[in-house]
């Protein structure tokens, strides 16, 4: 049993120590330092901030100091994990006797050693969304020291690996993503570019053009949002969609079962074309479709009826019709010659 007068004197001595040593804690501010409560606010970035509230129990310092963590920005999951870490190391704090600064320093170090703490909820949601199948070679790895989330999704023999890196200012800045895949090169470029675009839209406001000729201005009242989960979902959906998707015209799977059978010849019959609406085609199928009437109103995707946009088929309806008429006339001439010779 701790003598009450001795306890009070010990606490008074410790409070003086706290006032002196709190300055050694990076980005920390002493808000309250009285026998009833010691409160230290820590702010590393706009999103990495918390209040460390500590109270002295009746048997202090023979008991671990009571700690409560509060934050409007950090997930409760991370705060709970931090408290568990404090409890797991209580012996070192009990040996230190004066525990307040030691516990606060430990919490600050734990915060710094877990840079992904700001996206703990996103990682949890992404893990549920991914539902990785290790037997297929899928995984979701968290690398705290590198502030990186490494995701691999597999569909048949095709895989997509994405490394999403968060900097110190995340989620005010967006996740940087690098992609590796054994899909055709055109799909790797699409995955990389679209992952960046998905992330950018999370933190940068869309531009609004009020009047013709005026310079676009950012939309007012835009609130940045975390980008890790949206990017992760995009990677998963794309990786699991295309290896089994049918050609929108011939209704045969575009991707061969063996990735080594893929052709990178952009004019090859079996080259896989992806159009603006997201649907895919064999090159031979869409090439014939785009060069065959009707042309009026633009050629539309047979799957979703959206107008097809693609760099390979940018000619106007009039030019397409003229080319088709020319091909037909040429074919008639060849047929007439063949009939004459036969």
TrEMBL record:
Residues 247-304 form the RING-type domain. Keywords: Metal-binding, Zinc, Zinc-finger. It comes from the Eukaryota. GO terms for molecular function: zinc ion binding. PANTHER family: LD44813P. This is RING-type domain-containing protein. It comes from Plectus sambesii. The lineage of its organism: Eukaryota, Metazoa, Ecdysozoa, Nematoda, Chromadorea.
């Amino acid at each position: 049993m701790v003598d009450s007068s001795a306890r009070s004197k010990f606490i008074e001595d410790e409070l003086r120590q706290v006032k002196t040593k709190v300055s050694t804690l990076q980005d920390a501010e002493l808000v309250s330092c009285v026998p009833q409560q010691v409160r230290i606010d820590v702010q590393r970035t706009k999103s990495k901030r918390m209040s460390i509230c500590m109270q002295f129990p009746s048997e202090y310092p023979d008991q671990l100091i009571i700690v409560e963590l509060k934050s409007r920005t950090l997930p409760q999951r991370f705060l709970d994990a931090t408290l568990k870490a404090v409890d797991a190391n209580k012996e070192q704090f009990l040996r230190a006797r004066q525990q307040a600064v030691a516990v606060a320093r430990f919490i600050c170090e734990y915060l710094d050693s877990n840079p992904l703490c700001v996206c703990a909820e996103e990682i949890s949601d992404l893990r549920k969304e991914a539902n990785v199948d290790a037997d297929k070679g899928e995984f979701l790895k968290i690398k705290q020291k590198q502030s990186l989330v490494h995701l691999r999704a597999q569909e048949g023999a095709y895989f997509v690996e994405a490394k999403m890196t968060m900097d110190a200012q995340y989620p005010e800045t967006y996740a940087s993503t690098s992609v590796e895949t054994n899909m055709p090169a055109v799909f790797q470029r699409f995955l990389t570019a679209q992952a960046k675009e998905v992330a950018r839209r999370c933190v940068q406001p869309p531009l609004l053009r009020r009047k013709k000729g005026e310079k676009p201005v950012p939309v007012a009242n835009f609130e940045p949002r975390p980008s890790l989960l949206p990017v992760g979902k995009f990677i998963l959906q794309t990786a699991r969609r295309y290896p089994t998707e049918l050609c929108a015209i011939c209704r045969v799977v575009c991707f061969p079962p063996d990735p080594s059978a893929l052709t990178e010849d952009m004019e090859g019959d079996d080259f896989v074309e992806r159009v603006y609406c997201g649907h895919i085609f064999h090159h031979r199928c869409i090439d014939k479709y785009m060069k065959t009437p009707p042309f009026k109103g633009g050629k539309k995707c047979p799957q979703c009826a959206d107008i097809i946009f693609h760099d390979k088929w940018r000619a106007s309806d009039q030019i397409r019709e003229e080319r088709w008429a020319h091909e037909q006339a040429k074919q008639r001439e060849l047929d007439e010659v063949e009939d004459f010779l036969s």
